[in-house]
Amino acid sequence: MHESQASLHDALESLGWPGGVAFDLARSAHLVTFEKGAPIFHAGEPADLLYVIVSGEVKLYYGDAEGERLLVAICRRGELLGSMDLDLAASHESEPAQMFSAQALSRCKLAIITKARAAAAVRDLAAHEILTLVQRVNRDWARFCSRFLAFLMMDVRSRLAYAITEVAETFGIADPRGKLIPLRLSHEDFGELVGASRPMVSKHLKELAKAGLFYKQNGRYILSGADQRTATRAGKLRTLSAVSRSVQVGDTGPFPTNVTTARRAARRDQVAAAAV
Fold it and tell me: Contact 47/84 with Cβ under 8 angstroms?
């Protein structure tokens, strides 16, 4: 088996596919390379293909009809992109579409598996193997939804601190000062990741750096003390609380306690951004 196919086999196993089925899917997959910045698929396209990242990183976006978009996640090697319906009996008119758009953050290689091939593999699985797949999908979506519900309870500064910590946990490399984030992320990237304007993100990044949450060197971020403070979710929240207490910017509190408070904080951030 080719090295890329071997990597795909390992990724499929980690996603809940049994070893033998993962082997067959890996052998039949199409491997496609995307250059940095290249679109992979768009929202609204038929959800008839399964995309798995073999190497590199991919940005997943949600957008609206007016062109506004939110960076939903930065996905890495071994992750499944988008969604795929396996109901072969569905009519063309009712066929589900992709909810998100995907764009290459770096030069990356993706494995593309057809809907028919994946559906046939599912039909051959035992009941307990299907249950394992379903449980994995449910866990991923529960984590995904939990993240965005948590964001509703935070102001921009807290969302930004949370996002930096989250990226460091996912992609971070051990560094004497904490964790080095090897990705080159712009202020625009962070703005799309937390749903805020670039001026607002620049303002809060400056304050968070001043408070010692991270360092920036050669265009990359180093999260301070990340190896101790991001080991658990509780540690992450303690970090956010500490940073919010140490940085006094306007009247934005550390954690709005309900949606109404969050909306008020958002309005204050919009006013502050307009004044920048």
Answer: yes
